[in-house]
């Protein structure tokens, strides 16, 4: 009886450490195995392949940084890399401006609304549950200059002069792809901002109102600074997504980034270098490009995380 009481009084977590560790390990191992097979192994393989020369599928010999040198000196790769990088930067900036601004605006409006809130949240979130390939093909049909729904709607309301070959104009193709991408993913930052707004105590706004602050002043001085952690998450994830974009652009404009490489991105360039490249050293060049993309994305993401963490520390 005394031993049973001692067992009951024993604090939770002080006993059975090894069995619990085994249970945790049993749950973590499958995920770790999948992560290793589909993430770690391809990264290590790409890094290994990038320092060898290839003749088709045959590995010739160690070449060091020769494949990386070819990316920036051998035509046409030397021209295409910088052009694609510029398009990725524009794609990120445009997506951040549209997607984040609208996501924050929708989150603020829905936070103060009660009627139809769940329906609108679901409606804004549904597009990012659809594959980007499907979204790209659907919008390519809707933007068709002959029978597309967009030009038909413009003509139907008397704005036929605004009808354009949206995907065929080099000056419009990239902005259109940015808008389509922002349309698909606007629900993601909206949900994150909505969750953060729900966690801000109402007393902050009430105290500011007592001091005579307007709605804009409350949002700018109180709400927006408290959303800095979420803004950092949205920025980093948007950067990673836009610099890895491939499927949406491929479905909208093809593997060449039409028209005239106006929508070419690093992801499309990697695809062409690996699978549409007549050079026998296609594997080495494409793996070198993949390594450069990883270093760029990983490095910028780490730097952005540090910047936003410092901003958060200033708020505390």
Description:
The longest helix is centred in the N-terminal third of the chain and has 36 residues, at 77-112. Strand 1 (52-55) and strand 2 (58-62) form a beta hairpin. With 316 residues, this protein is mainly alpha-helical. It contains 15 helices and 2 strands. It has a two-stranded antiparallel ribbon.
Question: How is the secondary structure organized here?
Answer:
Elements: H1 2-9, H2 17-49, E1 52-55, E2 58-62, H3 66-73, H4 77-112, H5 117-125, H6 132-142, H7 149-156, H8 173-185, H9 187-198, H10 202-210, H11 215-226, H12 228-243, H13 247-253, H14 266-275, H15 282-315
Antiparallel strand pairs: 1-2
Keywords:
single chain, 316 residues, mainly alpha, two-stranded antiparallel ribbon, 72% helix, 3% strand
How big is the Rg?
A: 25 Å
> What is the chain-wise order of helices and strands?
HHEEHHHHHHHHHHHHH
Cα shape: globular
Number of helices: 15
- Beta-strand portion reads under 5%
Q: How would you characterize the largest beta sheet?
A: 2 strands, antiparallel
Instruction: Average the pLDDT over all residues and give the rounded result.
Output: 90
Strand order of the largest sheet: 1-2
Poorly predicted sequence stretches spanning 5 or more consecutive residues: none
Give the class from helix and strand content and strand pairing.
mainly alpha
Q: What's the total number of strands? A: 2
Q: In which range does the helix fraction lie?
A: over 70%
The N- and C-terminal alpha carbons lie at a distance of 51 Å
């Amino acid at each position: 009886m005394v031993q049973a009481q001692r067992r009951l009084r024993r604090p939770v977590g002080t006993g059975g450490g090894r069995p619990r560790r085994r249970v945790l390990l049993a749950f973590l191992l499958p995920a770790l195995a999948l992560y290793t097979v589909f993430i770690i192994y391809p990264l290590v393989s790409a890094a290994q392949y990038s320092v060898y020369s290839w003749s088709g599928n045959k590995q010739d010999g160690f070449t060091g940084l020769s494949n990386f040198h070819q990316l920036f000196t051998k035509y046409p790769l030397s021209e295409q890399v910088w052009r694609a990088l510029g398009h990725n930067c524009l794609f990120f900036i445009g997506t951040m401006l549209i997607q984040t601004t609208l996501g924050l605006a929708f989150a603020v409006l829905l936070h103060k609304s009660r009627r139809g809130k769940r329906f609108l949240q679901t409606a804004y979130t549904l597009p990012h549950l659809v594959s980007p390939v499907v979204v790209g093909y659907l919008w390519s049909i809707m933007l068709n200059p002959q029978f597309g729904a967009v030009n038909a709607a413009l003509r139907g309301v008397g704005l036929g002069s605004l009808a354009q070959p949206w995907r065929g104009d080099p000056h419009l193709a990239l902005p259109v792809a940015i808008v389509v991408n922002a349309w698909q993913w606007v629900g993601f930052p909206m949900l994150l901002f909505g969750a953060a707004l729900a966690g801000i105590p109402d007393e902050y706004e009430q105290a500011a109102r007592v001091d005579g602050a307007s709605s804009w002043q409350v949002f700018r001085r109180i709400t927006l600074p408290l959303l800095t952690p979420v803004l950092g998450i949205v920025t980093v994830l948007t950067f990673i997504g836009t610099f890895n974009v491939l499927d949406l652009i491929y479905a909208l404009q093809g593997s060449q980034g039409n028209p005239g490489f106006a929508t070419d991105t690093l992801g499309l360039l990697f695809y062409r270098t690996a699978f549409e490249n007549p050079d026998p050293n296609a594997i080495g060049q494409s793996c070198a490009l993949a390594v450069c993309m990883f270093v760029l994305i990983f490095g910028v993401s780490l730097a952005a995380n540090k910047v936003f963490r410092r901003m958060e520390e200033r708020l505390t």
